[in-house]
Amino acid sequence: MAGFVRTAPEPTLPPPAASIGVVATLRDRLFSGPLASVFTVLGVVFLAWAIPPLVRFLVIDAVWSAPDGAACRAPGAGACWAYIWRKAGYFTYGSYPIDQRWRVDIVFIVGAILIAWLLIRRAPWRSVAAGLFFIAYPVMTVLLLRGATTLGLAIVPTDMWGGVLVTLIMALSGIVFSLPFGVALALGRRSTLPIVRFFSIGFIEIMRGVPMITVLFMANLMLPLFVPESWAPDRLLRPLIGVALFASAYMAEVVRGGLQAIPKGQFEGAMALGLTYPQRMRLIILPQALAIVIPGIVNSFIALFKDTTLVAIVGIFDFLRAVDTARLDPEWAGPTITATGYVFAALFYFVFCFGMSRYSLAVEKELAKSRNR
Q1: Whole-angstrom Cα distance, residue 173 to residue 166?
Q2: Is 107 helix (H, G, I), strand (E, B) or coil?
Q3: Please, are residues 264 and 219 in contact by the beta-carbon 8 Å criterion?
Q4: What integer pLDDT is reported at residue 191 of this predicted model?
Q5: Residue 350 pLDDT exceeds 90
Q6: Which value, in Å, is the radius of gyration of the alpha carbons in the chain?
Q7: DSSP 313-337
Q8: What pLDDT, on the 0 to 100 scale, is given for residue 62?
Q9: Banded model confidence at residue 326, pLDDT cuts 50, 70, 90
């Protein structure tokens, strides 16, 4: 009986055409089963029904340039973007004096540069950027926006601030102060000192147990009662303190979840190295805990950014309040004008919130790669 031994391997066959390419991707993601197929078809039908009218209203039939709202009130007119361009200064600065708005522009530009410097993870001298942003930038912001007669800058009271300026001040201040306060409260809740633990738990549970509106009213009406009249906080500073304290309570629970996720061996290993408690937290525990809860931290930041709209209830003229007030101008009154204003406000908040979400995902991926290496 003769045998045959192959001297060369059989050439590798290509994968089936149905398992690669666009067809395979669509099948796996959109038509992987009966239920997925039904939802895909329903989604396509919904998009086919919703997108054409939106495109027609927002783009095709939109009024891009007009001296007043007459063209936007014409039958068949779409979104009134001319209203947005005409009121852009009001949306951005509120009632800030027109001849002094260059001060706000400088604050915006310097803040954007410092934030970009901090967010680019491979940027050089990030510690310098952090020092400038957290120490020098707030002082410069107060001097420019509030004014100082010694520097030749006219005093602009906070009653005249508004629009995007107030929204960004509220959001950035809340974000910057809520994270360190939240970390301190989370560590205090896990402390072995009864007084520190009791105070931390009480503060967190009280803040999380009442609506934010209540905190804003308390900060606006009750806070001046606890200090002499001459020391009463500014009307913009009161809700700012309330927002920061409210957000710090939620941030504390997010950070506490990260601390509880750290294996006990990390604590024991840090103690075995002879590190003190501050050193253990700063060098070993907190970097790992904060990396774990990045999604929760960013989610709290996004919620805080959107919740800044509530400050309008206590008389603060934020961006949404500016949009809501500008639509009452008789020259620009109209149903499509009102809808355009709210669409523009929605796009404003979406851009900022979506940007924070995308950045957090990028940071998570980079941290995952570094851990794998």
Answers
A1: 10
A2: helix
A3: no
A4: 85
A5: yes
A6: 28
A7: GGT--BHHHHHHHHTT-GGG-SHHH
A8: 86
A9: confident
